[in-house]
Write a structure and sequence with these properties.
The structure holds two protein chains of two kinds. Chain A is built from six helices and no strands. By secondary structure, chain A is mainly alpha-helical. Chain A has three domains: 85 residues, Four Helix Bundle (Hemerythrin (Met), subunit A) (Up-down Bundle); 32 residues; 33 residues. Chain A is globular. The N and C termini of chain A lie far apart (61 Å). Chain B is an all-alpha fold. Chain B has one domain: Helix Hairpins (Orthogonal Bundle). Helix content of chain B is 78%, strand content 0%. The radius of gyration of chain B is 17 Å and the shape is elongated. The chains are: A mainly alpha, B mainly alpha. Chains A and B meet through helix 1, helix 2, helix 3, helix 4 and helix 5 of A and helix 1, helix 2 and helix 3 of B.
């Protein structure tokens, strides 16, 4: 099984960004490397012939969410967070054991699933089909999501006001 | 044409790194970014599976996950700003208000 060079490149980029997030101390570096991961994933979605989701990934994830992260990170970052990372060694060892177990389980599940099915490059998912599904089959979850966004917005406003009162 | 397993393996690897970030880093901001990474790994698995089964369910699910992530990040970052204002630190080890 040959892996196309474009997929290998994008996958390495995504994993590299994730590892940078893990190993860099400065949260700003973490945010920027996570943006790299998001953009590489958008490229992989394009390869999967899903341009709608790729565009959403760039606009919502790499755009809106990560910019929000960047603002907050620059707002709360402190000077001592630059420089090398002081690892809490027992904690890191324990965490890597747990993560390795999880990864092993996942890889075993993928093997048992028999993932040798080739992904056929069929026609791209049309936006009309997505819209029909979203506003037909998934109408109630869609409305629930709008209620969730409203609740989150009200919650954030309340939290912001409370911060003002206490300081 | 790529085997599905490659996409799933990449997804699993990203999920594993996200878990490690959540468990090993002590900064609350890193914790949230690790959760974002795990959500993205789930999205990738959804979309890769959609190439085999077809249909529009996977893009719709990813859309819902995007909206959930946006709401979660808005509330979480507001909490982080509030905690930073009142306690002056983001070390998750120092959040012990609910300790008995």
């Amino acid at each position: 099984m040959l892996v196309p060079i474009s997929f290998a490149l994008l996958a390495l980029l995504a994993l590299g960004g994730a590892l940078m997030l893990l190993f860099r101390r400065d949260p700003v570096d973490g945010v920027l490397s996570l943006v790299v991961t998001m953009l590489a994933l958008a490229g992989i979605y394009l390869q999967l012939a899903d341009p709608v989701v790729a565009a959403l990934q760039v606009i919502v994830y790499a755009g809106a969410i990560m910019v929000l992260f960047l603002f907050v990170t620059m707002f709360v970052r402190r000077a001592e967070e630059r420089g090398p990372l002081g690892w809490d060694r027992p904690r890191f060892a324990l965490a890597s054991i747990v993560a390795a177990c999880l990864l092993g389980l996942l890889v075993q599940a993928i093997g048992a699933f028999g993932g040798n099915t080739p992904t056929h490059p069929g026609p791209p998912a049309e936006i009309a089909a997505i819209a029909h599904s979203l506003f037909g089959e998934f109408l109630y979850p869609f409305e629930l999501v709008s209620a969730l966004l409203l609740v989150a917005m009200v919650g954030v406003v309340v939290l912001g006001r409370r911060g003002e009162e206490s300081s | 044409m790529i085997d599905l397993s490659w996409y799933l393996l990449l997804s699993a690897a990203l999920f594993g790194v996200g878990t490690l970030v959540v468990l090993a880093r002590r900064n609350a901001l890193h914790l949230f970014m690790g959760i974002e990474l795990m959500l993205n790994a789930g999205n990738l698995a959804f979309l890769a599976g959609a190439r085999i089964h077809g249909g529009a369910q996977a893009p719709v699910s990813v859309l819902f996950i995007l909206a959930l992530a946006a709401a979660e990040v808005a509330v979480g970052l507001a909490l982080i700003v509030l905690i930073h204002r009142t306690r002056g630190t983001l070390d998750v080890g120092s959040f012990n208000l609910l300790k008995g």
